[in-house]
Design goal:
Blueprint (H helix, E strand, L loop, with lengths): L3 E4 L2 E4 L2 H11 L5 H19 L5 E7 L4 E7 L5 E6 L2 H11 L4 E9 L6 E7 L8 E5 L2 E2 L3 H12 L4 E9 L1 H10 L4 E7 L2 E2 L5 E2 L5 H6 L3
Parallel strand pairs: 2-11, 5-6, 5-8, 8-10, 9-10, 10-11
Antiparallel strand pairs: 1-2, 3-4, 6-7, 12-13
Helix pairs in contact: 1-2, 2-3
């Protein structure tokens, strides 16, 4: 059986390690410190799939035995963009794998009445048009904030974008597909639905609150 369940526009990483860690994170009794640790670990596993299409070029190197053509990443370094604040939990894990990546931040909060995104911060790496960009945010719920963040990246020149999240709701996937059909979504689970408050069901609650111990 494949570790990934793929439909157009969406890749669900079904690897047992990913699913095991996610199940512990869903449990409401899991502590803040454990939640934070698991989020970092699962982000590294998801990053494997999110970076699958990175371009490579063969470079001549000398091994201890002989010379060879070895594949190396091609072009400018990657860009990682965290949607604040909860995105930072995924960002930390991906940076452990790709420490040379450039890092950007997008600050958006969801208006509790309209559920629409409101921008309050944006700091992005330069030359995004020449970089592969991975956007990270644990929850793809309504998709409004995610779509708005990708709008900002495209206006800044980004062309190759992957959206990586921990959980996705069908409503969020559809919203992103309509707004950005060229952006692939990589997630650990596609959950059932959103509730009346815009939370993913069954979900795991508010990822930012659980990661930082706030309410």
């Amino acid at each position: 059986m494949s570790d990934n369940a793929t439909i157009p526009h969406l890749t669900v990483v079904t690897h047992p390690l990913v699913q095991h860690k996610l199940s512990i994170m869903r449990d409401k009794s899991t502590s803040t410190s454990k939640f934070r640790q698991l989020l970092r670990e699962i982000s590294m596993l998801l990053a494997y799939e999110a970076t699958r299409e990175l371009p490579t070029v063969n470079v001549k190197i000398d091994t201890p035995i002989c010379e060879m053509d070895a594949p190396m990443l091609q072009g400018r370094k990657m860009a990682l963009v965290s949607i604040l604040r909860a995105g930072n939990g995924l960002l930390d894990g991906v940076l452990e794998l790709i420490p040379a990546a450039r890092v950007g931040f997008v600050g958006l909060y969801r208006d509790p009445e309209t559920l629409q995104p409101v921008e309050y911060y944006c700091k992005l790496p330069s030359e995004l048009e020449e970089r592969w960009t991975v956007v990270v945010d644990p929850m793809l719920a309504t998709g409004n904030s995610s779509a708005a963040a990708v709008d900002m990246l495209k206006k800044a020149g980004a062309r190759h974008i992957v959206f990586m999240c921990l959980l996705a709701a069908p409503e969020g996937v559809q919203r992103m597909k309509e707004a950005h059909p060229d952006v692939r979504i990589v997630t650990a689970a596609l959950d059932e639905k959103l509730n009346d408050h815009g939370y993913i069901v069954p979900g795991l609650g508010d990822a930012g609150d659980r990661m930082f111990g706030t309410k």
